[in-house]
Automatic annotation (TrEMBL):
GO terms for molecular function: ADP-dependent NAD(P)H-hydrate dehydratase activity; ATP binding; NAD(P)HX epimerase activity. It comes from Streptomyces coelicoflavus. InterPro entries: CARKD, Ribokinase-like. This is Bifunctional ADP-dependent NAD(P)H-hydrate dehydratase/NAD(P)H-hydrate epimerase. Residues 1-110 form the YjeF C-terminal domain. Keywords: ATP-binding, Lyase, NAD, NADP, Nucleotide-binding. GO terms for biological process: metabolite repair.
Amino acid sequence: VEGARLDSVRELAARYGATVLLKGSTTLVAGARGGPVRVNATGTSWLATAGSGDVLSGLAGSLLAAGLSAVDAGSAGAYLHGLAGRFASEGAPAGAHDVAEAIPRAWRDVRGD
């Protein structure tokens, strides 16, 4: 998968008729109905840690529950997760708990508060 991430995410979305989020240094989101793959590069290497994917899943799930489409929830969740990872790791290693605590700051940053 790593060698052909773009092709893989498209293929999985088409095969299963589902939105697919492929987490990585650049996170990819492909919709079930095709269309362009969304690319998010806000992440940091500190997001490759235990529990970080759980934080992303919870964030994307909450956005989905709030009424966003699966593609929008995955895309916005990946962006906020990456931004929170950057904020959490300013000057020090960051774990999943630190990333989760930085989500409100990422949300405020996106809103311009």
